Amino acid sequence: MAESHGGGCCPPMDLMRSEPMHLVQVIVPMESAHLTVSYLGDLGLVQFKDLNSDKSPFQRTYAAQIKRCGEMARKIRFFKDQMSKAGVTPKETLDKDIDIDLDDVEVKLEELEAELVEINANNDKLQRSYNELVEYKLVLEKAGEFFASAHRSANAQRSEIETEQVNEDLLEAPLLQEEKSVDPTKQVKLGFLTGLVPREKSMVFERILFRATRGNIFIRQSVIEESVVDPNSGEKAEKNVFVVFYSGERAKSKILKICEAFGANRYPFSEDLGKQAQMMTEVSGRLSELKTTIGAGLDHRNILLETIGDKFEQWNLKVHKEKAIYHTLNMLSLDVTKKCLVGEGWSPVFAATEVQDALQRAAVDSNSQVGSIFQVLRTKEMPPTFFRTNKFTTAFQEIVDAYGVAKYQEANPSVFTIVTFPFLFAVMFGDWGHGICLLLATMYLILREKKLSSQKLGDIMEMAFGGRYVIFMMSLFSIYTGLIYNEFFSIPYPLFASSAYECRDVSCSEATTIGLIKTRDTYPFGVDPVWHGTRSELPFLNSLKMKMSILIGVAQMNLGIIMSFFNAKFFKSAVNVWFQFVPQMIFLNCLFGYLSVLIIIKWCTGSQADLYHVMIYMFLSPMDDLGENQLFPNQKKIQLTFLFLALVSVPWMLLPKPFILKKQHEARHQGLSYAHLDETDESLQVDTNGGGHGHEEFEFSEIFVHQLIHTIEFVLGAVSNTASYLRLWALSLAHSELSSVFYEKVLLMAWGFNNVFILIVGILVFIFATVGVLLVMETLSAFLHALRLHWVEYQNKFYEGDGYKFAPFTFTLDGNEDE
User: Between 635-654 and 611-620, two packed helices, what is the crossing angle to 10 degrees?
Assistant: First the structure.
């Protein structure tokens, strides 16, 4: 499948074989190295090899520059976080090719970070003071109310005592006055503390205070209706104002320690009502001043962040681009003269001219006196795999790559997967009503793909959007197979003509086909609608879909074996052609290819032969007469011939190949002693990872065991894989029956009640069941089964999938990476 490419960078796509690759070496002068790597990153067609893998990151040439770029990237992430918190959106850069000096960016970032950090620190201090004053104001209000009520109750009690003293006996008055004259000297002055405590801790706080002071306190708490911002944590919290009365310094010290442990903020408070009013006035004045100051600070901070946002994208792209360039430069080895860098990497053959042009432009633009050297190296190392895909074929290629990346220039299964994958899905999902629903959902994704591709979608939505063209093909094929099955939400419609059959009488609608008379030509496309609803519907459709599944499976397995032939021809392996492809084709088709032919003959002739009996006794009693199961003349002789060829093909696969490989290895190993002297230099340019096989020992036992396993796997797999394709029949039947159940047991049953409310509920249940079960769960189930049929039954016939992807150095994704 070699392809001759004309001029230009973009030759026609060839999905069958990966792009031809070569290992290139570039020798770049130090003064133009940076610009050269930058231009190659813009080109995105060179995958560099790490020539300094034995060195740690700190021992490499450009470790200091990477550290410097990492520090700038940290500052950019800091700015991004600050803008996100402030709700500032970075301005999109229309012209991303503006050249910015990295030193200027570094200086600017340093200045802006210092200014922003200082603004944040000042704002945090002001905000903390503001939050403390808010709490202090609440303490003044709540504690002031408590002390005011206490003063009022004390005055009321004092007036009552004075009234009682007037009515007392005058003889006792001197004694009482004497006692009262002594009491003031014995009175104890109570101290008190005020503050706020988190509401969830208030009960525990009160209990601990009571126990620590052995009940020698009096505490009052007042609930604050609105949440307040805690000065220490900066988070909103629900709090209570408390006032604790105590006696003695020991009790005070205990209370202070408990307040500190519970995170209770304490504030000073005066008993004097005049001082309380004065403090309230001062706090209110300071709060208004701080609010104005904080607002001005936030305005200044937003202006600074908007200034940063104008250049943010440019700085971000520049820093990440520089970091990627220096990472790549560290993969290049330093020449012994320390005047140039030597790099090696993989590149597509068609890109050789583009790479050389980039090297030349870099040398000219950097005013280098010496140009870069570009040369192709010969190597036996396995090149990476590179397929040129578009937005339509990418999803199908990713389905194949999820199983394993194709070996270099191996036949690519995705060429046929583009058609066979949605077709096998549709065989299991055949309903043109459901197919139209899938098509409408997919068309929404396709028509809005430009807008949706720039948005951040959820995980499931992003997965569906990435596979929108796969789902699009699946929906088209589902409509096609639905028309063949003649099912629209399980309802048959005579779209292409009237039914070919009519009933003899009224009672034959529930009878078998014996009760039907053929009055017209055969229904032109798909299943005749008269089959639906009859007793023979299930046996008829079961027989049809089961045989169809076997035909499809044998056809796809044959396609896989034919692909192995093209692989063998491409890699010039005659051994694989004659001792793998030929016996595999004989074995599969002498058994299951023969079964497929019998199915087609039975359909064409209308024979009543039992194919199960034919295939089973082909092995158990091959010499017996077929009797009524004979479908064509000389069938017994042909069966014996096929059986003999199938048995012969097993040792044909097993025995010759290991001995031929051993003989080829001995001949190749013997020929190395007579190599030409002029090939000595080239022999040094082989794979350092052991890519050359010339000097490896040939382990015959390993090769033989491997071939034995491969033979057994194919022989048993031919049976199991054919049976595995019966899942097409099983899932198609399940989908049809589920759809029929939802239609008959939900929609028709709701219609039969002649009640509008029940009908609406029935329609809603039918819609949700159809979408949730048939359009989501059944779609996923059929998708996974189609995936398994491709990965296991189809690809294992030819696909090795032990390659590795081509990962060129490019700036396409670097702008969004925060390494």
Answer: 60
Strand (E) or helix (H) holding 702: helix 700-724
Question: In three state form, how does the secondary structure of 538-602 look?
Answer: HHHHHHHHHHHHHHHHHHHHHHHHHHHHHHHHHCCCHHHHHHHHHHHHHHHHHHHHHHHHHHHHH
| Count of C-beta atoms within a 10 Å radius of residue 323 | 20
| Total-model pTM | 0.79
Q: Alpha-carbon distance 102 to 105, whole Å?
A: 5
What is the spatial distance between Cα 376 and Cα 26, in angstroms, rounded to a whole number?
A: 9
pLDDT band at 217 (very low <50, low <70, confident <90, very high): confident
* Domain limits, the chain: 128-155+189-291, 534-666+701-752
- By the 10 Å C-beta count (0-12 exposed, 13-18 middle, 19+ buried), 114 is classed as exposed
In 3-state terms, what secondary structure has residue 238? coil
Torsion of CA 623, 627, 628, 629, to 10 degrees: 10
Q: What CATH class is the domain 128-155+189-291?
A: alpha beta
Phi and psi at 723, nearest 5°, equal -65, -30
Q: Which of 421, 346, 357 is nearest to 379 (CA)?
A: 346
3-state secondary structure 242-272: EEEEECCHHHHHHHHHHHHHCCCEEECCCCC
pLDDT band at 556 (very low <50, low <70, confident <90, very high): very high
Amino acid letter for position 116: L
Q: How distant is the alpha carbon of residue 21 from its chain centre?
A: 30
